[in-house]
Write a structure and sequence with these properties.
CATH topology of the largest domain: Rossmann fold
Shape: elongated
Number of domains: 2
CATH superfamily of the largest domain: Crotonobetainyl-coa:carnitine coa-transferase, domain 1
Order of helices and strands: EHEEEHEHHEHHEHHEEHHHEHEHH
Strand order of the largest sheet: 4-2-1-5-6-7
Distance between the termini: 40 Å
Radius of gyration: 25 Å
Largest sheet: 6 strands, parallel
Structural class: alpha/beta
Number of helices: 14
Strand content: 5-15%
CATH class of the largest domain: Alpha Beta
Length: 377
Amino acid sequence: MNRGGDSMLSGITVVDFSHHLPGPICTMRLAELGATVLEVQPYPQDPSPFSSIADGPARKTGASVLRSHRNQKSISLNLRTVEGRSLAFALAREADVVVESYRPGVLRHLGLDYDRLWEVHPSVIFCSVTHYGQSGDLYQLGSSDLNIQAVSGLLSAVRDAQGRPVAGEIPLADFAVGVYASEQICAALVQRERTGRGAYLDVASADLLSYWSGLHALLAKSGHAQQAKVDSSRDFVAYHVYETAEGQYVALAAREEKFWRNFCRAVGRADWETMHTATISGNHDLYVELCDLFLSRTQAEWSELGAEVDCCLTAVEEWADWAENAYVRSREIADTLPEAGQVWHEDHTHEWLKKKLKMTDASLRRLEEMGVIPVRI
């Protein structure tokens, strides 16, 4: 939570050509920091899950459900036409930042790539957000979030009791690289302020998750190899998810000895204090006792104990009750997301072309007739 941080990028204009989740996550963060984001939508509408699917001045988009739209404008252009590409280039030329997520080479084909834009706008910050980057063996390969987790090695670190990799529900790679891209853009803005130079940012989700996996691998090799091996199956009794009396769950993560000792004393089991590194597979009786202990109280009761005792014990919150989560309420996180009725937003094509490119009503009507922009209703 930033105090006054929602205006730090005030005066910065972002043109967003992205059409998959990482790009919208990136520009959402920039908008939340005060930037004005111009979201370029395909016209006619692309029926993909993360694009607009309804015609008219107001429409609901899949990726945009995650956006607040407080500082964002939506414009629709037919990039299959020379006129549409020309308008897109003109808008990018006026921007501080351009974000795109097309497969490498597509924007070059459209004449909207960084090299061409740099010739007339060398201070632009151009960020390409893709799965595999602009080079390498896989850069032209289509993929999804699960593929990125798999290729990077991250998926192998999350396994079930049988040792099989488990796919999570959250698109971790997409969310993570979106935030990482916004960080890179902010750093580039600082550089531009100091030197006047723009930048081209090749941001890839597989790069980021591979880096995370590499850090984990280094930790495993630096005297913790055996510990990392058993960690993969969550074999420690002190680092485990336990079921509570009413069928809910709590997470005990007392990896440090002091936290485990505090937990043992809080539940009246000082005899467990020396079992800090005990494993489930090697201490089954202890594990059964812990399971029975957690089944003796409700999740709320364990949460209360975790709040009172410094032992790394927290509730496993359910998605259905996310807005009522005590942490979410206390940090007012729910207030930063759009409500269901707010994900409908107007098309600002005519307004923005008039304001930014000084176009006349007659010019806009001609573009409508040519199928370059939507007809204003």
